[in-house]
Amino acid sequence: MRDLVPVLLGAPAAPFVITPAEDPAAYRLLRHRVFVDEQGLFERSDLDGRDDDPRTVVLVARSPRGDLLGGVRVGPAVAGPDIGWWAGGRLVVDPAVRGAQGIGPALVRAACAYAENAGALRFDATVQAPHERMFRRLGWQPVRPVTVAGRPHTLMRWPIGRIAALAAATKSPLGSLVRDLTPAGFTGDDGAPVPGSDLVAACDAILPSMVERDPDWAGWCAVLVNANDLAAMGATPVGLLNAVAARDAGFAARILGGLRRGCTAYGIPVLGGHTQLGVPAAVSATALGRTSHPVPGGGGRPGHRVRLTADLGGRWRPGYRGRQWDSTSGRSGAELRRLLSFVGAARPAAAKDVSMAGVAGTLGMLAEASGCGAVLDVARVPRPSGTTVGDWLTCFPGFAMLTAGPATAADAGPAVTADCGELVTGRGVRLRWPDGELTDAIDGGVTGLGAA
Q1: What digits encode the pLDDT tens for the residues 62-119?
Q2: CB-based contacts of 226: which residues, under 8 Å, 6+ apart?
Q3: 84: helix, coil or strand?
Q4: Are residues 184 and 284 both part of a single domain?
């Protein structure tokens, strides 16, 4: 990480650069000069346990000659696994350059960027009262007064809008676009019951950019997302139709190859479709399934517990790190079909498969369709090792189902299930942390479609 400040500020190169410190010794000496000798905030030393935590990162500002001008530390706020709760602290600037070059604000901005890039969804700092105004100007929000080393401080929080931004980008236009097209009782659902039958229909299209970039994977995903949509309603797949567009026959064959593999793995027969050549690449599919009792996405009620059932096997899809988790392409057909049968066997009050809105955004959709809000216990959400909380809660996870309310114990195949939240009165989604603190993830409805 080099020359971070000019990028953050959108400005010409500053007379200093901010980088992670290879050796924090000089930064710690500067801290001692300021916090012990100058301010008398600590009697002998300002070092604490976070300095010994190997996950703590020190960002330092240096002049073009390499002179240390200031620094700040960032890292996970609590011991144990990183659950996306980070804290900044020990912000210090050499008295000789304090205030003149904007070093303090630049270090704060760099700390925020570093924490967000590391997947943090909560970023706190305890700020000395005289510096609260600067943090407010930078966009930080005060939480409450606290006392540190016998001096008044303010606990402040940097608002991280990653979850809300994803929900807004992927789902918020739906209300105005399709409000009058949704089936009664199944508004916001993943599929739609076919009137007068036990059939459920689902339809999904793959992003054209993804089709161009990885046509075989796009074909596979056209099956995957439709199979998940049917599974979320408790339906057993009976067939699939596809529509493929490509610049030539060779490219179309790559799309259809992935689609064919997907249908074979999931045991879903291809009923027919349409292929068009000489046009930009695209693929969409419609799947049909059967169930006499569809599970609605809007069947939850305040007080219902929320569970996440997710297949944690696999890896990030190459080229889509942090965005698409591939838990399906390495599974056997038997494993995939066991995953698809889970909701139908469990019969929860409400269910939704986790879509491109991520775990938190999809929970917001389930809550919105149920006419309520939701709380997600961050530390209780199952996730693959090596993934950050920020990435996992905002990615497409391959196979993951959110269910709410009473349910029958059911085989989830290779997936794991965890009770990790609840539906509550109100709107939106809040994240609950191990210290009991609640932070806003989504402050209202996700789609604008309202209750089912």
Answers
A1: 999 999 999 999 999 999 999 999 999 999 999 999 987 899 999 999 999 999 999 9
A2: 202, 203, 204, 237, 240, 285, 286, 287
A3: coil
A4: no
Tell me, yes or no, whether 133 and 155 share the same domain: yes
Q: 382 near 416, Cβ under 8 Å?
A: yes
Beta strand pairing call for 282-290 and 199-205: antiparallel
Which long-range contacts does 2-8 make (Cβ < 8 Å, 24+ apart)?
A: 4/110, 4/113, 5/61, 5/106, 5/109, 5/110, 8/106, 8/109, 8/110, 8/113
What are the Cα distances from residue 342, in Å, to 338, 404, 410, 433? Answer: 7, 14, 6, 29
In this prediction, residues 226-231 reach a mean pLDDT of 97
Number of domains in the chain: 3
CA dist 390 and 245 (Å) reads 34
Pairing of strands 325-326, 236-246: unpaired
- List, for residues 146-186, the tens digit of each pLDDT value: 999 899 999 999 999 999 999 999 887 777 777 777 777 77
User: Any idea which residue has 């938190």 for tokens?
Assistant: 360
Q: Is the pTM of this model over 0.85?
A: yes
Where are the strands (E) in 278-404, listed by range?
282-290, 305-310, 315-316, 325-326, 350-353, 373-377, 400-404
* Same domain membership, residue 357 and residue 316: yes
Count of beta carbons in the 10 Å neighbourhood of residue 405: 19
Among 205, 171, 215, 175, which residue's Cα sits nearest to residue 363? Answer: 171
Listed residue (305, 446, 295, 439) closest to 362, CA to CA: 446
Q: pLDDT tens for residues 339-381?
A: 999 999 999 999 999 999 999 999 999 999 999 999 999 999 9
Same domain for 408 and 362: yes
Read off the CATH number of the domain in which 91 is found.
Answer: 3.40.630.30
- What residues are paired with 423 via a beta bridge? 374
